[in-house]
Design brief:
Rossmann fold; GMP Synthetase, Chain A, domain 3; 12 helices; four-stranded mixed sheet; 468 residues; 21 strands; alpha/beta
Amino acid sequence: MFYGAGDRSNPHPRRAGANMRTAEYLDREVETASLKLVQRLQEARLAKQLDYLFARSLFYQEKFQAARIRRKDYRRLGDLARFPFTTKEELRESQAACPPLGKHVAAHIDDIIRVHSSTGTTGKPSFVGLTRRDAKVWTRLTARSFYTQGLRKPDIVIHAAGLTLFVAGLSSKDAIESVGAMFVPIGTGASEKALMAIQLLRATAMHCTPSYATYFADWIRREAGLEPRELGLKKLFCGAEPGAGIPAVRARLQQDWGARVTEGLGNADMAPIIFSECPDQSGMHFNGQEFVRVEIIDPESGEVLPIEAGATGELVYTSLERECVPLLRFRTRDRVAVLGTSCSCGRTSFKLRCIGRTDDMLIVLGVNVFPSAVKEIVSSFHPRTTGEIQVVLDEPGPKVVPPLKVVAEYATGCSDLPALKDEIERKIKATLSVSASVDLVPAGTLPRYEMKGQLVKKAYEDIVAKTK
């Protein structure tokens, strides 16, 4: 079931000007639904999805049998916690044992119309298939997420992210076009083309990673002699990595571009964008009410945590309407913090911020540290710092012998480096409760990335490589 958008009767929306009135919601009925109504909807859809899994998925038939789980063990939504988790490692093993899509494929090969993939940390592709119905669900969910961020029909969107196997490539195209906005497929590694398209088409928005938004701003100044804010972009839709929700990073991007910065969060195995910020910029709203069941768990014990302001834990997803590769209680490894359960925009879904990946987490004398938290602290010293950092590991993590080694760039013109070093180290200690050794290097020393940024440098791998 899909919910209709607002009135789109103007045949020439881009001629209507910036003050054209538009609907506040793409799907008002579901976006403003009560928690009780959403739970009732999810309870019924999960029952149908479980019927499908028990009948069509060899992967889950074997998994449920091993866990001694029967279909009748699910009667209400709370019973989901009795079912086993699914991990990325299991999906990789499933595809290796039964290529190309694995034992967890539940649709006939003739019904699969497209595949995407992600490489993850192993570098091996993990394929995700879509039926026509799956693609329709992805399009609507992704469109709702972009619309939440402020995408409207008059927008001209530069897509400066992956376009090939990347799940948020063609899916973003379908979603943005379904809203009626103009999609400009630039992709990655094409900054010159992106600049030309922004100027000639008078683009209003850009979709990219926060790392690329930073990289592109520096590139424009260096190669074109322009200030990014002169280009006239009004909206930056960011995602694929933590960053755009970090206050200091967001402030820098908004200052550079003169545009409102919002972020989205998705998962290659579940959907391209599932959470996204409204223009209030107070956390990412859950947008998949009728498509995805979300749990937040303690990553150590697996205990389900209440979704309330202040809760932190790992995101777990369950498909509610998926044909090709439906997943049950899939552990994303995304560590999140719930920021609220209401919003001034009127949406009733909860809001969160992604802190980082649980598999990126470091442990310093028993204290959990996320590299994105270190970046947030260093970025707060802008304009004395550029905000670029790397956490250097001399040995494989997650345990790190203190002090935590951090390389941070100081900005051109910053002179009192000993004082800056001391201030950053003190703030890391006060904020994260770990001691750090900060090595300040000139602006431009650390690598820039057009896709996801790399906040950790594994120095031990360089040492091993040199000895071979």
